């Protein structure tokens, strides 16, 4: 069980430290908003790489690429945050997010767009464990609840603002403008966090070093090479039509071999050479733009081999479920092979942990029951949460808003608005109530909301009463977020807070993917059973017609039954999470003195 350092407790009262945490939370919210922006911009993005709207399945890598970067790399980033420090990881994550944004904006085909989205996922995902660990560094155990709740709240607010932000940008500009704005905001936040840390001399994390604002002039040679690389890259990704059509300059864009891609042109070759020169310069310069040598040491110390095994295992799970069509299949056509690869990588990871002298997951890091219990509970929270995020809009599209995907999606806003409110309340309650009790209460509320949703009929969303289960469920999920994070931070050492936070986030995300698969399977069985009872269309519709309103109503009733079954399944997941929270988080030491501790000895009370 860890205890916050004295420095951490002092820093928690420092205005500069609080401002630093505020900027980190703002970055988390912005990255979360970007996750949901793509939902509205997806069709336009498909058109940008030559796909038509009816090829939606081929666009799945745009979503799964982001998820792959977000989840698969998270444990490694969390570990690096423990080894190198929170501020360097925050700034690096924002820079990677910005690079991914510009690559996505300039994408000319599917591979380049997926690469950009992957980098966005790596950068956006890396912000979360570093920010949660920063809370643990800046605040003593009994005062972490509220800031953890606020971080969770702003992350969920991002999911509310994201679609609105995307709609606003798309109303006045092309989809690429969304990612150009990401580029600007990411770089500004990275510079602000680095400058604030340097000016205030804030040190956070077990191995953070104070940033010296007088490092000297930047590497001008490296900067010049970088600018040339950006210019050449722009010509590869988005070559001006006038240059390509020019008799002389157009030769620069002709491939060396017939059928060669853009990288096999003179401009592409120059770009590759410049990229190699930039890397070489950063490895040899006295004051490089990016200290790749130090980051390389951090990668080795973080156990990049173990991280690779775990990334492959997580990637297999993600690809198996995220590339499937949830309406018709549990996982994708290649899902079995992805899961087989994930199983092999998991075995290799476990063997590696037993043999490595300094593994990615240090021995005993999650030894305490509340520590590993938080990971288990987070998985089940994700499995239940996904039913609201996916099936509430599906229900709305099946019933009231059949002709408007946007209005169907907006039904979920009632749930998403309540969620951050619950997160703040849950964070405050961790100071006076056991984490397990708060989490269980929240998940019981979520289960109650789902049970009420399972009784929705065809016209349920036309009544104001439909708001009640959405708000109750949103508040319930919000209540559970901060206590779970507080429990894992309270029962792990300071030196692994980044990794522990990453494991909780990974568990919730994987739980969402597995949950939607399992719940979809249950729902589809109910749908097929209902559909089997529908009379033949010729017995329902007038002779000579291929479809009628009566038959459509019967199919709609089967779809409603499917969604009702999914909601009941989600309620079961939520109740299981509540029970396990009471058992596994029992005795989690997150409260202030006098609440759950013996007044004389300070020993946490068990109960």
UniProtKB/TrEMBL annotation:
Database matches in Pfam families: MFS_1
Chief site of localization: membrane
Annotated Major facilitator superfamily (MFS) profile domain residues: 20-589
Membrane protein topology class: Multi-pass membrane protein
Organism domain of life: Bacteria
Tagged with keyword RNA-binding: no
Location of the protein in the cell: Cell inner membrane
UniProt entry keywords in alphabetical sequence: Membrane, Transmembrane, Transmembrane helix, Transport
Protein name, UniProt field: MFS family permease
Annotated organism of origin: Nocardioides salarius
């Amino acid at each position: 069980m860890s205890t916050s350092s004295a420095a951490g407790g002092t820093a928690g009262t420092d205005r500069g430290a609080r401002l630093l945490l505020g900027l980190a939370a703002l970055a988390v919210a912005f990255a979360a908003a970007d996750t949901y922006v793509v939902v509205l911009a997806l069709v336009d993005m498909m058109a940008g790489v030559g796909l038509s709207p009816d090829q939606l399945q081929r666009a799945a890598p745009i979503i799964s690429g982001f998820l792959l970067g977000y989840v698969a790399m998270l444990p490694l980033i969390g570990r690096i945050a423990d080894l190198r420090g929170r501020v360097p990881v925050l700034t690096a994550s924002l820079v990677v997010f910005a690079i991914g944004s510009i690559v996505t904006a300039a994408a000319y085909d599917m591979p380049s767009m997926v690469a950009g989205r992957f980098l966005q996922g790596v950068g956006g995902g890396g912000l979360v464990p570093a920010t949660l660990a920063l809370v643990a560094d800046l605040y003593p155990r009994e005062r972490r609840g509220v800031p953890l709740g606020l971080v969770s709240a702003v992350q969920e607010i991002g999911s509310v603002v994201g679609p609105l932000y995307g709609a606003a940008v798309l109303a006045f500009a092309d989809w690429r403008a969304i990612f150009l704005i990401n580029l600007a905001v990411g770089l500004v936040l990275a510079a602000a966090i680095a400058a604030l840390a340097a000016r205030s001399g804030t040190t956070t994390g077990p191995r953070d070093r104070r940033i010296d604002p007088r490092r000297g002039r930047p590497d001008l040679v490296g900067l010049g090479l970088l600018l040339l690389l950006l210019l050449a890259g722009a010509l590869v990704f988005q070559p001006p039509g006038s240059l390509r059509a020019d008799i002389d300059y157009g030769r620069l864009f002709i491939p060396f071999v017939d059928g060669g891609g853009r990288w096999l042109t003179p401009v592409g070759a120059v770009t590759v050479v410049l990229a190699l020169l930039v890397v070489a310069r950063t490895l040899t310069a006295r004051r490089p733009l990016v200290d790749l040598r130090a980051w390389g040491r951090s990668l080795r110390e973080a156990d990049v081999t173990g991280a690779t095994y775990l990334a492959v295992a997580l990637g297999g799970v993600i690809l198996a479920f995220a590339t499937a069509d949830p309406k018709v299949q549990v996982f994708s056509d290649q899902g079995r092979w992805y899961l087989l690869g994930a199983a092999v990588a998991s075995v290799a990871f476990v063997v590696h942990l037993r043999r490595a002298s300094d593994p990615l997951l240090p021995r005993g890091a999650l030894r305490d029951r509340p520590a590993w219990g938080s990971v288990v509970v987070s998985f089940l929270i994700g499995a239940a949460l996904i039913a609201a995020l996916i099936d509430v809009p599906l229900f709305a599209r099946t019933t009231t808003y059949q002709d408007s995907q946007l209005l169907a999606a907006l039904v979920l806003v009632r749930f998403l608005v309540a969620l951050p409110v619950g997160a703040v309340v849950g964070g405050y309650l961790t100071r006076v109530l056991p984490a397990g009790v708060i989490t269980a209460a929240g998940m019981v509320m979520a289960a109650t909301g789902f049970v009420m949703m399972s009784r929705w009929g065809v016209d349920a969303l036309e009544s104001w009463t439909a708001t009640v289960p959405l708000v109750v469920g949103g508040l319930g999920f919000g209540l559970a977020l901060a206590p779970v994070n507080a429990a894992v931070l309270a029962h792990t050492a300071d030196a692994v807070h980044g990794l522990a936070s990453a494991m909780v986030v990974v568990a919730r995300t994987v739980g969402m993917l597995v949950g939607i698969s399992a719940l979809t399977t249950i729902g589809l069985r109910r749908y097929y059973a209902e559909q089997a009872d529908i009379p033949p269309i010729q017995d329902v519709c007038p002779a000579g017609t291929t479809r009628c309103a009566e038959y459509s109503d019967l199919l709609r009733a089967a779809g409603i039954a499917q969604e009702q079954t999914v909601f009941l399944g989600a309620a079961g997941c939520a109740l299981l999470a509540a029970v396990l929270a009471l058992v596994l988080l029992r005795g989690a030491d997150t409260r202030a003195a006098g609440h759950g501790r013996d007044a004389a000895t300070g020993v946490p009370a068990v109960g």
